[in-house]
Amino acid sequence: MRSKDSAKVCICNVVSMPLRVRHIVKIFGRSRSPCGKYFPLARMWTTKPIGYTEIMRFDLNGFRHEVTQFMQGKLATVPWPTTDSASEQYAQFTAPLESFIASGKRTRALFLAAGWQTAAPQRLQGSASLPIKAGSAVEFFQAAALVHDDIIDNASSRRGFDSVHVNFAKRHQAQNLGGSSAHYGLSSAILLGDFLVSISSHIFEKAEAISLEAHAQARSLFHSMTAEVAFGQFLDNRAQYTPLDADPTALVRNAFAVLLHKSARYSVEVPLLIGATLAGCDDDHRQVLSTVGCPLGEAFQLRDDVLGVFGDPRVTGKPSGGDLIEGKRTVLIGLALQRATPAQIQLLQSVLGTQMDATQIDTVREIISDSGAYAEHDRLIQEREELAYQELERKNLDSPLLFALLEELANRTA
Predict the structure, then answer these.
(1) Listed residue (299, 312, 327, 170) closest to 237, CA to CA
(2) Cβ atoms 161, 100 nearer than 8 A
(3) Beta strands in 201-333 (DSSP E)
(4) Please, are residues 329 and 239 in contact by the beta-carbon 8 Å criterion?
(5) In this structure, are residues 306 and 39 in contact, taking their beta carbons and an 8 Å threshold?
(6) Cα 96-265-375 angle, rounded to 5 deg
(7) Largest Cα–Cα separation, the chain
(8) Which of 130, 128, 132, 129 is closest to 114 using CA atoms?
(9) Which CATH architecture has domain 5-410?
(10) pLDDT band with cut points at 50, 70 and 90 for residue 82
(11) For the chain, which residues make up each domain, given as ranges?
(12) pLDDT of residue 3
């Protein structure tokens, strides 16, 4: 008789399986990575998806590289007339972005390109015709959102590098400038984030589009997205001031609102809609993409919240247990507060949002796992990914890029 542990499959082993094998594999239980952290299981296709034969032919990294090159080129030149002295200061202003821009996964640009691919004429669906400018615009906005997010969260690192405000503070010290290095870092990072928002909008004005009407519709979606993220960021900021002894059911409900407006829609659903709209799609097509993008975006952020607690910092580029130290009121934490024992709840309330040591972080992880919160959270992810796949198959959407993206996201560990 098999032990329970024998039913667990390491996600790294799953990822290494040939794609055709993974289509028929069904895995039960939860998986462990080699470092002992729990991750949601990858979603397994039980049938060949539409566009299956093209999945491995689409070069995700090639598109990422093109977007990154475009972004780096835009930052390399001062975008307005200036003096030599100011040009030198411009280089100082954008210097903290060098590693930041080079290391992005370009998820939002890829979903925008996937949306384009679902709606564009056949001649414009190939990798050579994808909307690089539009993709770069959403990535510049993503960079702005992260710069400001790290300030709000007082996060010291991002993607394995110093966060932008910390980078500015260290430059202040290295250049022997007067005053507070911390304040200089924060104020400079706020300005750089504002600059990135402006640059993203400027680039989107010149984004690829099938027609002027399509561009106008997509532009409206783009600006609505940037406003919604600011609101979502406010919801997240406000949630951090909600007492942990509040009703955990309300905490979960509020966490889903944060998840939707701060991340889920702008990470997946809206980029899909923008890309398809640039390609000239109609309202019915946008509705179809929303039925795929909304649950997938929620799954994307729910998975990200798991990585914020259980992720390996060598892979995620973020501090171990960072979301616990920041006291993030995520769905995962809300579920743990719903299911933990009174003693465990008291412990969670006393340590979340403090400078926890490694032992305390491991204790909180065990509570999340043993209480059943982890399993329920994983079910929520699987439920949403399954819904997205079902809608894709039912609506017969033709986008090799979209299927390649879904495969990648379901198996990500960072």
Answers:
(1) 327
(2) yes
(3) none
(4) yes
(5) yes
(6) 95
(7) 77
(8) 130
(9) Orthogonal Bundle (1.10)
(10) confident
(11) 5-410
(12) 40
Provide the 3-class DSSP secondary structure of residue 113.
Answer: helix
Structure tokens at 287: 């509705």
Quote the mean pLDDT of the chain: 85
- Please write the tens of the pLDDT for every residue from 119-147: 987 777 666 678 999 999 999 999 999 99
Q: Give strand pairing partners of 277.
A: none
Q: Are 311 and 38 in contact (CB under 8 A)?
A: no
Residue 141 to residue 143: CA distance in whole angstroms: 5
- Return phi, psi of residue 299, to 5°: -60, -40
Mean pLDDT for 70-90 is 89
Nearest to 209 by CA among 222, 198, 225: 222
Angle 3-8-10 (CA atoms, 0-180°, nearest 5)? Answer: 145
Residue 326: phi and psi, rounded to 5, are -75, -10
**Using an 8 Å Cβ cutoff, are 217 and 171 in contact?**
no
CA angle 404, 407, 413 (to 5 degrees): 125
Beta bridge partners of 32: 38
Kindly report the pTM of this predicted structure. 0.84
